[in-house]
Design goal:
Number of helices: 14
Number of strands: 33
Radius of gyration: 25 Å
Mean pLDDT: 86
Structural class: alpha+beta
Distance between the termini: 36 Å
Strand order of the largest sheet: 28-25-27-26-30-31-29-32
Helix content: 25-40%
Shape: globular
Largest sheet: 8 strands, antiparallel
Bound molecules: guanosine-5',3'-tetraphosphate
Length: 528
């Protein structure tokens, strides 16, 4: 197969959802269709249940699962599909944001009874920022759900994206009859015995006015469906594939993941419309997937589960060319040539050493502590991929050394955990103390636990009251200097020496933005 053919047949995406909407269940059903797994229950949910925040064994267990399910590849209808897993717990949202930098599209799962929830909105913001194409799957129709038109309106309004249903449900809850596929004009009937199998009973219905519709779902539901479909065709424009690819229009499907219902429709449509690997922007130019030379970037680093080995796995997304085992590549940040003797690929439950990988694929690289998130590999060109942001943290604590004999271990531990993207480190300009900033409170416990178990170091947290950290810059040097002087007690530098303003309150931040018009306040930063 040529490079272009390999690219064209690849689909790299993530399933995202508010916890409990059915992300794990849907992922598992997609793998079942792909033949990548054969029994339900093979993909364990990697969510950390509420209330388990201090159960560190649980966190460790989850970390183990999330290595195994980080990337799940399978073949379906000639396509090579890579699903990138994202953590369920919202304290790990930053991991999810970064994973979204490595996908070419997403499927959003929404609980039909709950509608759009908080985490869905936040994740959609990231998709919108990157113009990522999204498909929406409205799940749990076997339970009493909101009305489909209300759900469509809610998605459109809350997620700020135009929608176009490509399937339409017939009732929900105990009277759920099935889904009518609007573009294939096929009716899928919901029967309760199709749990765990990959086939649902489908009926071709070219003409909705035919009486066979009444025979299948009864006169009342048949009338309802005819009215609904007429309304859909009247209200929504034809599905516009280009608008979907630009991230402006989301096709919507309905179904019930746990009953394997509506999933095949979703997958068939996905392989047909979802984009293959897209051009990737760098600081100097845009890299096209079909360029002959290999390029890729690290979007995730995972520590080894074995505390005796400090080794890690770095996940690299291939952006162009063909990645080869044992070939020398330039690690752009260090300027060093590196080759990998055992790069791994992931196929559902299995991890295997590969000789080649293509754009869209994710390769696991063995790392002894040299890599950082955002690192680029090339065949010599000094590129750096952009759009791998670090988000302004929202929780802060001073970190103190609790064991004076273990100063070096602590410094090394902090350094490596920051490279993994677990949290961000700031140094106060006022007193030189180290401040750790995270997106969620759970991270502090994870850091403390991992410092102890992986680095043999111990830390203590002390409170600090900060509302938000934001990176500042300005072309107006005089104003920037003035700002830094006046706000001296609230200034810090990040790991790369960049200026960070630690605002005490939303009011002080708003005031600073008002009074210092030439200063730009950034709430995300690119990684270096
Ligand atoms: P998540 O990864 O998005 O957090 O959600 P997950 O798939 O774990 O699903 C959350 C719960 O919703 C699970 O129940 C799952 O069985 C259920 N679920 C998923 N899809 C459907 C559906 O289409 N209909 C119905 N009725 N339920 C669905 P649980 O009780 O938390 O776990 P389990 O004991 O069933 O595994």
């Amino acid at each position: 197969m040529t490079l272009q053919e390999e690219i064209t047949r690849r689909r790299t995406f993530a399933v995202i959802a508010h916890p409990d909407a059915g992300k794990t269940t849907l992922t598992e059903k997609l793998l079942l269709f792909g033949g990548a797994i054969h029994v339900a229950g093979a993909v364990k949910s990697n969510k950390i249940k509420k209330g388990a925040t201090s159960d560190f064994m649980e966190i460790e267990r989850q970390r183990g699962i999330s290595v195994a399910t980080s990337v799940m590849g399978f073949e379906y209808k000639g396509c090579k599909i890579n699903i990138l897993d994202t953590p369920g717990h919202e304290d790990f949202a930053e991991d999810t944001y970064r994973t979204l930098t490595a996908v070419d599209s997403v499927i959003i799962v929404i609980d039909g009874a709950k509608g759009v929830e908080k985490q869905t909105r936040k994740l959609m913001e990231v998709c919108r920022m990157r113009s990522t194409p999204v498909i929406v799957f409205i799940n749990k129709l076997d339970r009493p759900s909101k009305e489909p038109f209300d759900l469509l309106d809610e998605v459109e309004k809350e997620l700020q994206i135009r929608v176009r249903p490509l399937a339409f449900p017939i009732s929900n809850g105990p009277t759920f009859k099935g889904v009518y596929n609007l573009y294939e004009k096929r009716l899928s009937l919901f029967t309760s015995d199709e749990k765990l199998t990959a086939s649902a009973s489908t009926v071709e219905i070219d003409d909705l006015s035919s009486s066979s519709l009444d025979e299948h779902i009864g006169a009342q539901f048949a009338k309802q469906l005819r009215d609904d479909v007429e309304l859909v065709e009247g209200v929504y424009d034809e599905f516009d594939h280009e608008a979907y690819l630009r991230g402006e229009l989301a096709p919507v499907f309905f179904g019930s993941a746990v009953n394997n219902f509506g999933v095949r429709e979703l997958l068939d449509c996905f392989v047909r419309i979802a984009p293959s690997p897209q051009p990737a922007p760098t600081e100097t130019r845009t890299v096209a997937a079909n360029e002959a030379k290999m390029t890729g970037f690290v979007f995730k680093i995972h520590a080894n589960m074995d505390p005796n080995h400090r080794d890690r796995i770095a996940f690299m997304k291939i952006c162009s060319g063909i990645f080869e085992r044992n070939k020398n590549y330039l690690h752009v940040r260090s300027g060093k040539q590196m080759k990998f003797s055992s790069p791994t690929a992931f196929m559902a439950e299995k991890k295997s050493v590969i000789d080649f990988a293509y754009p869209g694929d994710i390769v696991g690289l063995h790392d002894t502590g040299n890599f950082k998130i955002g690192d680029t590999f090339t065949e010599g060109e000094k590129l750096r991929f952009t759009g791998i942001p670090s988000f302004a943290p929202e929780q802060f604590r001073y970190i103190e050394n609790a064991d004076p004999m273990k100063f070096k271990q602590l410094a090394k531990g902090i350094d490596q955990l920051m490279d993994e993207g677990v949290a961000q480190l700031f140094t106060s300009s006022l007193n030189g103390r180290k401040i750790i900033g995270t997106v969620g409170a759970l991270q502090f416990e994870v850091i403390q636990y991992r410092l102890e178990h992986e680095y043999n170091a111990s830390c203590r947290w002390e409170p600090i009251s900060i509302y938000k950290a934001c990176w500042i810059e300005s072309d107006n040097k005089a104003q920037l200097d003035d700002f830094k002087r006046r706000k001296h007690t609230n200034m810090a530098v990040d790991k790369h020496g960049r200026d960070v303003f630690l605002a005490d309150t939303s009011y002080s931040l708003a005031l600073a933005q008002e009074n210092f018009k030439d200063i730009k306040f950034h709430f995300t930063s690119e990684f270096f």
